[in-house]
Write a structure and sequence with these properties.
Blueprint: H1 3-22, E1 25-31, E2 35-42, E3 47-54, H2 57-63, E4 77-80, E5 83-84, H3 89-100, H4 115-133, E6 141-143, H5 150-162, H6 175-182, E7 199-206, E8 211-219, E9 222-231, H7 236-241, H8 246-257, E10 262-263, E11 269-270, E12 275-279, H9 286-296, H10 300-313, H11 319-342
Parallel strand pairs: 1-6, 7-12
Antiparallel strand pairs: 1-2, 2-3, 4-5, 4-9, 7-8, 8-9, 10-11
Helix pairs in contact: 1-11, 4-5, 6-11, 8-9
């Protein structure tokens, strides 16, 4: 038997062994504007929230860079039916180009000063996870609250690669969609031809730094956000230390994103929000609940009650990392099954 054959057999055996081990558990990281979180999800359905790590000033600055958001989102502004309520595209394009320089390699005239804080946070989360598992961490998935840009995902892949972290899915949707999927809120198609109930899910990630809300359209277990709000002036820190009309600003923002009816794209109009998901360190904020009750009106009682019940079952601080760990396990299992058919 030649050396090349032995090498191929060794690679195949190691790959199979890795996938079998990985299928027992998976790790998920969530990156918020001020902190990072890590969770482990096991094949028996149990989960462990490993760490919440506060970001250094450089990390916090990096997570607020305009270039992190995709071209349908802008820090500090409300996006409603794909049109900015404030500011202009020209202004935001200028901001985007300024922030983009922080993610370009030096040979393209960029400043890579924003990459080290990302590596530092991921390394801390990896170390905490490995300490709990008592074993190396070869794979993890990472999620952020807002719709991220290709620029951000390029930086994330680079940071993970430098730490030898493999991401089974290199571009996750926003955390709200990942959580909705993990909670099983998707509806299967009922019959053929394709037919399923359409629904709207309002997801809100609330922290001291920002409020991120998505109005998510779901049909046949496919999720996509139709409206979004990512505002760094509506976090609980700004709200408590801000002007007297801060509550009115929050009320206006949530009224804008929840304005109905909403066209489904199939000729129908959706006239109600079916589910509410609250995540983040400030998910239980009383002012947020009061404003939601005012905005959602007759639906508020049922939606808020169900959202609170979910918060009692899954810690809203770790909902993003736990949900993406669940997703990571599913993908590792899929890879294992595919490998099993070829090895």
């Amino acid at each position: 038997m030649g050396l090349n054959t032995l090498y191929q057999l060794l690679v195949a055996c190691l790959a199979s062994a890795y996938l079998i081990l990985a299928a027992d558990h998976a790790v998920g990281f969530g990156l918020s504007l001020d902190y990072g979180i890590a969770s482990i999800y096991s094949s028996d359905g149990s989960s462990v929230n490993v760490a919440k790590i506060e970001g250094v000033p450089a990390y916090r600055q990096m997570m607020r860079a305009t270039a992190l958001l995709n071209d349908r989102a802008t820090t500090g502004y409300t996006l409603h039916d794909y049109a900015l309520d404030q500011g202009t595209w020209a202004t935001q394009a200028t901001l985007g180009l300024q922030s983009l320089r922080n993610f370009l390699p030096p040979w393209l005239g960029g400043d890579d000063g924003c990459i080290p804080p990302l590596i530092q946070m991921l390394k801390a989360l990896k170390t905490a996870s490995e300490s709990y598992l008592q074993s190396p961490l070869p794979a993890a998935e990472v999620v952020v609250p807002f719709p991220a840009s290709g620029t951000f995902f390029d930086a994330l892949r680079s940071a993970c690669s430098s730490l030898s972290i493999r991401m089974p899915m290199s571009e996750q949707p926003p955390a709200g969609i990942v959580v909705a999927r993990a909670l099983g809120l998707g509806r299967e198609c009922l019959d053929e031809p394709r037919k399923a109930e359409e629904q709207l899910i309002l997801t809100i990630d609330y922290s001291q730094a920002a409020l991120t809300a998505l109005l998510v359209y779901e049909e046949c277990n496919i999720f996509e956000y139709r409206r979004m709000l990512h505002n760094t002036t509506l976090g609980t820190n700004s709200m408590s230390n801000g002007p007297k009309d801060s509550r009115e600003s929050l009320l206006r923002a949530l009224r804008t994103i929840t304005e109905l009816p909403l066209g489904s794209g199939n000729g129908a109009e959706l006239t109600q929000i079916n589910e509410l998901i609250l995540t983040g360190e400030s998910a239980g904020d009383q002012q947020l609940e009061d404003v939601l009750r005012e905005v959602l009106r007759e639906q508020a009682g049922t939606l808020v009650a169900r959202a609170k019940e979910r918060c009692s079952k899954i810690d809203p601080v770790f909902a993003a990392s736990e949900s993406v760990a669940h997703d990571c396990l599913d993908r590792l299992n899929s890879s294992k099954n595919l490998m099993g058919r070829h090895v």
